[in-house]
């Protein structure tokens, strides 16, 4: 990737990672730290922030209560740029627009100049093209997709009225070393533990996954370019791969033949009678049968070639982490 324009290094952070303790927040923190850029990390728990960022001396923790506007304003005060990646429980997606609206209100009140939203493929709904670029219609047919679309709209409406500059970076499903919230996570854990892996089927449909450590440098590059704001970009993975092939490679590294317990839509419905998260997966099962495959060419035109870890290397790193953990 070509080197972005350098961000000004200052004693006090001017970039804040909002909802920072997840896997993507860790990747962005690593990229900023590698560039010597101070940053704030905003989350609900002081202990959680301390545990997640103890290896990052350039990170300044800020605890917030996103339900309290005073707390919101204090958390973003003095910031120039927010990178927003707040997660909610899978059965509480109704909160996404409300939280985004509150953060935009606080950011506008405190003079925050830019907000970068880490988004998903959900707002596109069922893909209408083999490769989905930023011009693809956003026609979500699911509640979760509608909530994510509304979240995007709140940000870009603020951009349109001149309150701040907005930018959306949409990611496909992701995986990475130690990343638990991934459809692929149990494959690595099971291969390392010599047990059967639990996966969602069908498992022979080509999917796209982004390797989490690859995300941070992309965000870092975008933050160094003013001209990218006011737009959205799709980050494509390193090609496509099937769940079966991921399992084959992972189990082979453990010297084993894959053993899989595959849950289809019917099994998810049955599990959903007892587990609300499984019940919510039913709505999004279309992504397993008709996955969204991103066209990432606009992003590469904006920031140059994007370094992408091959699936073979990524799976090897995930297996090494699973064995160590």
Automatic annotation (TrEMBL):
MF GO annotations: aldehyde dehydrogenase (NAD+) activity
Gene3D superfamilies recorded: NAD(P)-binding Rossmann-like Domain
Annotated signal peptide: none
Span of domain NAD-dependent epimerase/dehydratase: 16-236
Q: Which GO terms describe its cellular component?
A: cytoplasm
Which residues does UniProt call coiled coil? none
Q: What's the name of the protein?
A: Nucleoside-diphosphate-sugar epimerase
Q: Which organism is it from?
A: Xanthobacter flavus
């Amino acid at each position: 990737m070509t080197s972005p324009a350098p961000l000004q290094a200052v004693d006090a952070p001017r970039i804040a990672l909002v909802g920072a303790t997840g896997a993507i927040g860790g990747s962005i923190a690593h990229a900023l730290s590698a560039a010597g850029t101070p940053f704030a990390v905003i989350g609900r728990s002081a202990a959680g922030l301390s545990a997640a960022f103890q290896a990052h001396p350039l990170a300044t923790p800020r605890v917030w209560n996103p339900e309290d506007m005073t707390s919101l304003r204090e958390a973003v005060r003095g910031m120039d740029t927010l990178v927003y990646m707040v997660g909610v429980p899978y059965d509480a997606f109704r909160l996404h627009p409300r939280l985004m609206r509150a953060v935009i209100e606080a950011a506008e009140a405190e003079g925050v100049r830019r907000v970068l939203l880490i988004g998903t493929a959900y707002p596109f709904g069922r893909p209408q093209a083999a490769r989905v670029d930023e011009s693809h219609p956003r026609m979500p047919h699911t509640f979760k997709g509608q909530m994510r679309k509304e979240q995007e709209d709140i940000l870009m409406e603020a951009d349109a009225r001149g309150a701040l500059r907005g930018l959306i970076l949409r990611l496909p499903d992701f995986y990475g070393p130690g990343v638990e919230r991934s459809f692929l996570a149990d494959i690595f854990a099971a291969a390392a533990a010599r047990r059967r892996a639990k996966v969602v089927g069908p498992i022979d449909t080509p999917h796209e996954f982004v390797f989490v450590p690859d995300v941070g440098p992309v965000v870092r590059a975008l933050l160094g370019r003013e001209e990218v704001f006011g737009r959205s970009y799709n980050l494509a993975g390193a090609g496509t791969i099937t769940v079966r092939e991921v399992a084959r490679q992972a189990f082979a590294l453990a010297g084993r033949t894959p053993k899989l317990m595959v849950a289809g839509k019917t099994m998810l419905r049955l599990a959903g009678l007892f587990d609300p998260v499984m019940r919510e997966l039913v709505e999004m099962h279309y992504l397993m049968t008709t996955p969204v495959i991103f066209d990432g060419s606009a992003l590469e035109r904006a920031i140059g070639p994007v370094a992408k870890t091959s699936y073979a290397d990524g799976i090897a790193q995930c297996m090494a982490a699973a064995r160590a953990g």
